[in-house]
Amino acid sequence: MAIERTFTMLKPGVLSRRISGEIIARIERKGFDIVGSKLMRISRALAELHYAEHRDKAFFQELVDYITSGPVVAMVLEGDGAVLMLRRLCGSTKAEDAAPGTIRGDYAMHTGLNIIHASDSVASASREIALFFRPEEIIDWKDGNNDWI
Q1: Could you tell me if residue 101 is inside a domain?
Q2: What residues does 8 pair with on adjacent strands?
Q3: Residue 147 located in a structural domain
Q4: How far is CA 102 from CA 65, 69, 76, 108, 135, in A?
Q5: Catalytic: 117?
Q6: The CATH number of the domain where 28 resides is what?
Q7: Is 101 left (phi over 0), alpha (psi -120 to 50) or beta?
Q8: Which of 20, 115, 137, 143 has the fewest CB atoms within 10 Å, i.e. is most exposed?
């Protein structure tokens, strides 16, 4: 598999439930490198741009309202086949279909209040990373120099 970058976002419900550390730990244990991370509030304009492909769907306003209702943790992850691997770790976007052992299967009760976003393609990941991160906010790093441990 090729090394890829993908975008993920822990949604407001994760922070309000105080489970961001648990989810980030699962992402790290899977083997992803976190190369960008920030706590932020998303503006309505950014939320609408981020979810532009859903603009004509009935759930669009609910999605925008939810994502702007509180802080989120936006992250850029790197790893082998990162886009597909993260989507598998997250599980189905429909809460009732998300298998136990996946992030959504273990933590999401309602599809409309989904707890994590994961890019659905390499192209989407590139677009979403550019929406949320400036190039200088992404840090290329590799394991191996652990003299500080």
Answers
A1: yes
A2: 75, 118
A3: no
A4: 25, 25, 19, 10, 30
A5: yes
A6: 3.30.70.141
A7: left
A8: 143
Instruction: State the residue for tokens 């790290």.
Output: 28
The pLDDT value recorded for residue 148 is 46
Distance in angstroms (rounded) separating the CA atoms of residues 132 and 72:
11
- 50, 54, 110, 117: the catalytic one is 117
The partner residues of 39 in beta bridges, in order of sequence, read 73
Given a cut of 80, is residue 143 above it in pLDDT?
Answer: no
Is 9 in contact with 74 (CB distance < 8 Å)? yes
Per the structure, how many domains does the chain have? 1
Quickly tell me which residue has 């890829």 as its tokens.
Answer: 4
**Which of these, 34, 16, 35, lies nearest to 24 by C-alpha position?**
34
What is the rounded end-to-end Cα distance, in angstroms, of the chain?
A: 30
Q: What is the pLDDT of residues 16-36, one digit of tens each?
A: 999 999 999 999 999 999 999
